[in-house]
Amino acid sequence: MPFTIERVTLRQIKMPLVHFFETSFGRTYERHMVLVEVHGEGLSGWGEVTAGENPFYNEEWTESAWRIVRDYAAPRIVNHPLDSAHGVSPRTAHIRGHNMARGGLEAAVWDLEARRNNLPLWQHIGGGARREIPCGVSIGIQDSVAQLLDKIETELNAGYQRIKIKIKPGWDVDVIREVRKKFPNILLMGDANSAYTLADIDRLKALDEFNLMMLEQPLAHDEIIDHVQLQAALKTPICLDECLRNAHQAEQAIRMNACRIINIKLGRVGGFSEAKKLHDVAQAHGIPVWCGGMLEAGIGRAHNVALASLPNFTLPGDVSASKRYWKRDIIEPWVETSPAGTITLRDEPGFGYAIDHDFLKSITIREEAVA
């Protein structure tokens, strides 16, 4: 049955990280996130915009996301009957780019529709291929190799099944060599966040000796063709992230042999509708996928858990426990991992967790409604 979104509420929250997180384009000490709450038929659905504080991962950042949702995306769905959550994406498709802003709104509508149908979100999107989601961790660039090794050991002792380390020129071959000396048999991958060019091909080929699961997004954020040349030169599988914004681009990359693995991030591709399409394209071509993370708070983390239950998410993703990042999360209970490094799907309607409204109110720095 059609339903109508009567109001959209935006909240910007500020949450300090337990420990700084550094990638090839800088350090993050706290997150400024935009939460989207959609209201209809006496119910609320929640989404999280996964954009960073600065336009470094892609063109989006907190302020742009706020304005895109408030001024462009939300007015396109408020008081417009929707046959289903699938209808959000085509109604906002005229907005060029800004997938994270659009995706946060779309995810909220999927959550509302799941609650309306009294279904857990993972079931509503067609997931449930596994009830235990295998988890890995992403470890940022550290102040020293010794600090990195200590962090890896801590995460392995916590049960995580795969370790991803951020790399950049000068923090790559020698660092991974030390990691492999201490941990010769762990599932290990490197994530470059577009820090290299084809001029670095010999340095990247040197990573082949370390038996990495994959090398994630080594070249530019908008580059597919150069990845074809690089993958042909490497034994290590390339995983594409930033440069795949939709299922069509993923199919192009697969046809050209630009990668052998794909990271699907809900925000990067604009929400569940496109994420499911990309998942299906990869599955049809025998390309495994995994769920990437963007330092989400509990709402975005719970959405990632649901996404990762789709059948082709066969590799451990960056879906880890709340306590790795936050002293206090905005959901109850927090997302937790088992000693075996898994997260169990929850059967409550929607994304499966309650909102800690008192804490949410205390960290909200602005709020605005679109009706």
Question: What labels would you give this structure?
Answer:
single chain; 371 residues; alpha/beta; Enolase-like, domain 1; TIM Barrel; 2 domains; seven-stranded parallel β-sheet; four-stranded antiparallel β-sheet; 22% strand; globular
Describe this structure in words.
Strand 5 (136-139), helix 5 and strand 6 form a beta-alpha-beta unit. The chain folds into two domains: 7-118 and 356-370, Enolase-like, N-terminal domain (Enolase-like, domain 1, 2-Layer Sandwich), CATH 3.30.390; 123-344, TIM Barrel, CATH 3.20.20. The model has no long low-confidence stretch (mean pLDDT 96). The longest helix has 18 residues, at 99-116. The strands form four sheets. Strands 5-6-7-8-9-10-11 form a seven-stranded parallel beta sheet. It has a four-stranded antiparallel beta sheet with strand order 3-2-1-15, sandwiched between helices. The protein has a two-stranded antiparallel ribbon with strand order 4-13. It has helices at residues 62-77, 88-92, 99-116, 121-124, 145-157, 173-182, 201-205, 225-233, 247-255, 272-284, 298-307, 357-363; strands spanning 7-23, 26-40, 43-49, 132-134, 136-139, 162-166, 188-191, 215-216, 238-240, 261-264, 289-291, 331-332, 342-344, 354-355, 364-370. The two termini are 22 Å apart. The protein is globular and about 55 Å long. Helix 1 packs across helix 3 and helix 9 (247-255) runs parallel beside helix 10 (272-284). The chain is built from twelve helices and 15 strands. The protein is an alpha/beta fold.
